[in-house]
Amino acid sequence: MYELCRETPADTPEVEALLDLCFAPGRTALSSYRLREGVAPVGALCLMLRNDQRVVLGAIRYWPVRVAGLPVLLLGPVAVHPTAQGEGLGAVLMRESLERAAQQGWQRVMLVGDQPYYARFGFARLDGVEMPPPTNPDRVLGLEIAPSAWAGVTGPVEREGAVAGDGMEPQGG
User: Fold this and answer.
1) Which of 60, 71, 82, 102 has its CA 20 to 30 A from that of 146?
2) What pLDDT digit, counting tens, does each position of 105-123 carry?
3) DSSP symbols for 135-168
4) What domains can be seen in the chain, in order of their start residue?
């Protein structure tokens, strides 16, 4: 049995430990982390899964960025504890958080990841959207929550202005 809940500031050390376990030690040097520096995550979409012993087995985070001046959710990281991988927990986090993003009025989501995995959630390669280097453009993926939300949206991914608190609310566009 798992409990799905929002990540709180008190959970940060445990979530960071999970991310350290699941990803390479140099994960914070990746280009996506530069877009997150000094910017609060979109707190309402940062979710965790805890087991009956209250151990965090999975987590997903979202960050506000902009492409062509439009608001975009940058998904990631998403992580599942190695002992729980293959149980569908990552899919639970993906589906629930994307549903919440739609309910909150977000129109587009992007990530850097493995297209064969993320295609099942509706993600496809974003041509013309440029992550900071070094990022393989084949791994820059997007999802349209609103119809045609990515149509004509091209250019560099830009850091959202630094914000305080638990994140920003969606802006149309």
Assistant:
1) 60
2) 999 999 999 999 999 999 9
3) --GGGEEEEESSTTTTTT--EEEEEPPP--TT-P
4) 3-159 (3.40.630.30)
Structure token pair of residue 115: 């297209």
Partnered with residue 115 across adjacent β-strands are none
Structure token digits, residue 30: 């990746």
Instruction: Write out residues in the chain with pLDDT < 70, as ranges.
Output: 29, 162-173
The predicted model scores a pTM of 0.89
CA distances from 104 to 84, 87, 90, 118, 120 (A): 29, 28, 21, 22, 22
**CB-side exposure of 38: number of CA atoms within 13 Å?**
5
